[in-house]
Amino acid sequence: MAIVRWEPFRDLVYTPREFNRLFGDAFKGFFGDEQLSTRTWAPPVDIYEDQNNLVLKADLPGVDPKDVEIKVEDGMLYLRGERKFEKEVNEENYHRVERSYGAFSRSFSLPNSIDADKVTAEYKDGQLILTLPKREEAKPKTIKVNVSKN
User: Fold this and answer.
1) How far is CA 41 from each of CA 14, 80, 117, 142, rounded to the nearest angstrom?
2) For 114-125, how does the pLDDT look when each residue is reduced to its tens digit (9 = 90+)?
3) pTM summary value
């Protein structure tokens, strides 16, 4: 019988598949599919300003607009809603769940220049667009310089 040197970490270092399996099994309870489907999430937003408005665009694919609440109060904008998990397929039939589901809540402080009474919201192609108009006194004014001829 031949003597073979045992190297316990050789397979771990040279076989990424075994490495992934080892950690996948070790953390299965922490990152199981049932927890992935209900983990908390926050929709990404873009906020920009033009001459007359502050505009917020939030990506909300798969969210029913009826499940979204928008509130402006005390200089804050609150955006709340929920993306519901699709029950058309049994959970045990899923192989992977990477999209996030469940309730979300975002809040943004607003500048004093926003007219909260005139905020509008539009939902189109999975994107929520909030237009927050500036008050008239906050809008930039162009002043023409008169040149006097002496």
Assistant:
1) 36, 11, 29, 43
2) 998 999 999 999
3) 0.64
Q: Indicate whether 26 and 88 sit together in one domain.
A: no
Residues 59, 111, single domain; the answer is: yes
CA distances from residue 67 to 15, 21, 104 in whole angstroms, order as listed: 47, 39, 11
Distance CA 87, CA 90 (A): 7
Alpha-carbon torsion 95, 98, 99, 105, what sign?
A: positive
pLDDT for res 86: 73
CATH number, position 52: 2.60.40.790
128 lies in the same domain as 75: yes
Residue 112 is assigned to a structural domain of this protein: yes
